[in-house]
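Service request form, structural biology core

Requester: graduate student, group of Dr. S.
Request type: structure prediction, single chain
Budget code: on file
Notes: please return the result as structure tokens.

Sequence provided:
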Amino acid sequence: MPRDEFPGHRIIRYVPRAMPNRLPDTPWRSNAPFTTEAPTRDLIVACSDGRFARSFGDFAARGLGVEKFAQLIVPGGPVFLARDAPPHHTTGAGAREQINFLIDALSIERVHLIQHDLCAFYLQVVGATPDNLRERQIEDLRVGAERLAAARPNVAIHRWIAGVEGAGVVFTAV
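Core staff response, request fulfilled:
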């Protein structure tokens, strides 16, 4: 492709690298024990950003002392409780139906709403900027928690921000 077709743009050549096969042989057996006892009555609602996945689980286990918990993991985390997503986006009414299902089906007593630094959903879909991201997330957590509390008065709702500090993630109640 001639360089003139894209004046002012640098053309980058992509060279694919061989990726190791990470698919397991099947059947693959998990070493995690399965029990039929009821899970904890906690629900974690968080973003699907994989950079924070381990930190969310670690926070539930070590920070909250909850080994088993239900999860609703969607882009933007609990943003769907505070605002409607754009029409082309799947987060919104469907996620609100899912949280109601989980609360009823699992007899959830505590919901932990978690937002995090560097959230691409807020920056790309909601329209936040790096300068106002935290402020918008805190306000959405407040509005979302109020709406959920009005609909589910018997459920305790906790709001958290997961902030990047150095090579770690720090959870702060808001």
